[in-house]
Structure formats: structure tokens, C-alpha cells
Amino acid sequence: MNKFFRTSTFFNILIPLLLLTGCNASSISTKASSDGQNISMAELESIINVPGPIKFEKHVAANWSINLSGLLNLEHPLAVKAGLQEKDEPIQLYVYSLSHPDRGTYLVDSGISERFNSPDENPDLSFLVKMAMKTDKIQVIKTTQQLAKQSAGGVSGVFLTHIHMDHILGLTDLPKSTPVYTGPGEGSLSSAEHMFTQGTTDRLLANVQQLREWQFDQNGIVDIFGDKSVFAIHSPGHSPGSTAYLVRSTEGPQLLIGDATHTRWGWEHGVEPGTFSADPEKSVESLQRLIQLSESFPEITVHPGHQSL
Ligand SMILES: [Zn+2]
User: Fold this and answer.
1) How far apart are the C-alpha atoms of 238 and 260, rounded to whole Å?
2) How many CB atoms are located within 10 Å of the residue 16 CB?
3) Cα distance between residue 59 and residue 144, in whole Å
4) Ligand 1 centre from 197 Cα, in Å?
5) CA distance linking residue 148 with residue 97, whole number of Å
6) Tens digits of per-residue pLDDT, 183-197?
7) Which of 55, 135, 200, 207 falls between 20 and 30 A from 227, CA-CA?
8) Which uninterrupted H or E stretch holds 211?
9) Interval between CA 46 and ligand 1 midpoint (Å)
10) Integer Cα distance of 24 and 302 in angstroms
């Protein structure tokens, strides 16, 4: 680590100063998505186990590692009881392709761009972001450009679980015309950490014309294509617009929970994320709602944010 950033000046003066003011996650413009229809949980549940039309594939975009205290609430009684402590935790970046028989291929989250083959030289990332996110530990497995080339007809759109940086690293590999969807309030979330990250987030979103926000009613579920094949499920907490996706695939129902919890242990023990979450209480509620859904339908294959079950 650079000597300057180990000094007390940086941690004792500069950081608290920046904490006095907030900054939006991104300066990108947003608009209400006109796609999809609101439905109730009962309607969703009535069709979950009916075989669906979506060809589903999960891809590992990259291997990485990150602080466990961000990924998991280490103060949760179960984590304390298990003796879990801060460490560098191995994680993976996932991107999912959903091929709809009529609507084309959509991605859930964006994978990783060709530019990350040399993360140190990637002009999209600021020096501070490279350091804070330990981008030197990213090992690219499959880029979004490779993925897009494999899909006949390219990528019709991207459904983001949220706009934290690790979920938007592949967007620069896609054409500007690609529609990108997210939950409400993602771009306008204001917090001190965004002082450091807004420029980088904006550069990673440079190929996105406007973020299209799902319009959730009180049930928090949108039937995206209007044919009950793919559903967006509002799961706020980790970030205000965090969204899980339920996919009725040819191989059964798939639940992509985003970062409702990042790790295998977090899902299996019902423990929410740690310091990376904007609203820990809502994080707990959203995770419990998703756990309840998966317990009611054991046929569902669950995909936590950054580790597989
Ligand atoms: Zn993440």
C-alpha cells in the first residue's frame, strides 16, 4: 500500500472530512421503465414450479477476494458463535445469461470487461478505487465481450441486481444501445463513500444512455416480459434498489439474489451482508423474504451474490 495512505493524516483528517458530505452513486440519468407488469407473490408462487421457457446459464466472469467483514455481518450472533473473523475471503463475479425464445438474450449483472485483463492499466478505475477494491487480485475468467460474441443476436438487455461497482464492470463491453435496468433509487443513493467512487461508477456506466428503473408496487414484484417467465423482486437493504430475479428456466426455477447475501455461509445461516450494506435492517428483511420463498419451494436453485451453493 502506498505510504501516504498508511499515514494518520489520511485516515484521521481526510476521511472524516469527506464523511461530512455525501455524494450520489452516479450522475447518470434514470427513467421509469415501462417494461413489465406488477404481480402479487401469490401469482408468482402459483407458477414457480411450472417448467419455464428460459435457457439459463451461469458464468464465472472472474475470481477475486475481498474483506469478509464487508461480505458478512460478523457481529451477527451466528457469526460470533461460529468464530468468524475478518480475513480475505475468496469470491467470484457471476453473470447470468437468460435466453428467451422470442425476446433474445438478457444478462443478469454485467460480468467483467476486456479492460480488466490488465486492471492496473484500466483507465476507468481511479487510483483510490483500485486500492480499496484490491483490483490487483482480480483474475479474469470470461469477459462480457466473449459472452456477447457467443450469443447469436448479441445482448438484448441487462438486468442489474444493483449498481455497486462489482456488478457493472462489464457494461463497457456492450453497445450504447443496450437497455440496462435496475431497481429504483440506485443512481441517486447518496453516501460518503461515493465521494471516492462516483467518477469510476460514471466511467463504468459510460455506455449506458439511461438507467431504466423497475416500477414496483407494494408487492415489489415485476413480471418482466409479461409472460411470467422472469420476475424482478425488489430486495432493498444492501442498496435501495437491490433486486433479485426469479427465472423459470428449462431446468427449473433459479433465484438470483444479488447481494442480499454474498456468501454460501451467509445464505445457509441466514446472515445478511456486513459493512457493504446501506440499510442493515432492510437487508435482514429482504434476505428473510428470499429465504422464505426458497423454503416454500425447495425446487428453486439459489445463487448467492459471490459464492455458489
Ligand atoms: Zn457484489
Assistant:
1) 6
2) 10
3) 10
4) 15
5) 10
6) 998 866 555 455 557
7) 207
8) strand 211-213
9) 30
10) 31
CB–CB of 286/240 below 8 Å? no
Q: Which fold has domain 39-303?
A: Metallo-beta-lactamase; Chain A (3.60.15)
Q: Are 188 and 30 in contact (CB under 8 A)?
A: yes
In sequence order, which ranges of the chain are alpha helices (DSSP H)? Answer: 3-6, 8-9, 15-19, 41-45, 68-71, 77-81, 127-132, 144-150, 194-204, 264-269, 280-296
97 C-alpha to ligand 1 centroid (Å): 17
Share of the chain above pLDDT 70, in %: 87
26 C-alpha to ligand 1 centroid (Å)? 17
* pLDDT at residue 249, rounded to an integer: 98
Q: Are the C-beta atoms of residues 272 and 287 closer than 8 Å to each other? A: yes
Which residue type, as a one-letter code, is found at position 215?
Q
Under 8 Å between Cβ of 121 and 171: no
CA 171 to chain centre: 13
Tell me how far apart the alpha carbons of residues 240 and 189 are, in angstroms, rounded to a whole number. 7
Residues whose CB is less than 8 angstroms from the CB of residue 110 and which lie 6 or more positions away in sequence, other chains included: 95, 144, 158, 160, 167, 168, 169, 170, 171, 174
Lookup result for grid cell 438486468: 159
DSSP assigned state of 68: H
In terms of C-beta distances under 8 Å and separation of at least 24 residues, what long-range contacts does 81-87 make, across chains too?
82/265, 82/269, 84/265
Residue 15 has pLDDT above 50, yes or no: no
CA of 305 from ligand 1 middle (Å) equals 6
How remote is the CA of residue 96 from the centroid of ligand 1, in Å? 14
Q: What is the DSSP letter of 282?
A: H
* Model confidence, pTM: 0.89
For ligand 1, the distance from its centroid to the CA atom of residue 102, given in whole angstroms, is 30
- Asked whether the beta carbons of 260 and 289 are under 8 A apart, the reply is no
